[in-house]
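User: Show me a protein chain along with its predicted structure.
Assistant: Here is one chain, sequence first, then structure tokens.
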Amino acid sequence: MTAIAITIAGSDSGGGAGIQADLKTFSALGVYGASVITALTAHNTVGVQGIHDVPPVFVVQQINSVFSDLIVNAVKIGMLSQPAIIDAVAEGLARHSVTQIVLDPVMVAASGDRLLAPEAVDALRQVLLPRALIVTPNLPEAAALLDGPLAQDEQAMCRQAERILALGPKAVLVKGGHGTGLESADILMDQQGMRRFAAPRIDMRNMHGTGCTLSSAIAAGLAKGLSLDDAVAAAKNFISAAIAASDHLQIGRGPGPVHHFHANWS
């Protein structure tokens, strides 16, 4: 049986993040990718110039179309900019009894442009977090989900992971890429306790789409039957290699994408 993952997210017209990064990641990791587009963005390596939200009814129609035909093994959720779209996605996934959900709470683009309306944060907390197998916030997103300060060390990351876990997901991965130090450490928290996934911190210019890529790599691992811990570990290795190889790409005038096909392109 072919492993299939679906990404429910916004489109990045520059190709470095969003739906495009997710599908590249699925392909690089040997998983067939399908998609539900929640928003169109005018987006490049410099920033976000515009957002056009897809009507919620059409988001539901895409979900029904995919799940009525494909046997989907895992779902990655990315950019959902409005409460009505969040509600539509939650209802669609409930209708099809989806459980393998990786939720990346995309709030702000790497350029600093806001991708999630402020009024949508509560909907994300209340409607989608309880449905997620794992939620993967970076440090600013974890702080925003909790209306709290940015975690300054791993102890604070652990405390925030515990508080997010109390909101309902089965597991939380607080990502340390925005931190400092020689290592980039991610904290995985679930009912079994805390695990730490670390890699040497890589100082590269091209870091566009790192969060999208990591979460979709986790979904790819789950789609192939890996345990959650193994999927997170494999995804951490993949994103680290994609970042390390990113400067081999020369894309755009701003910070470019990570290299999803570092293992395939000469």
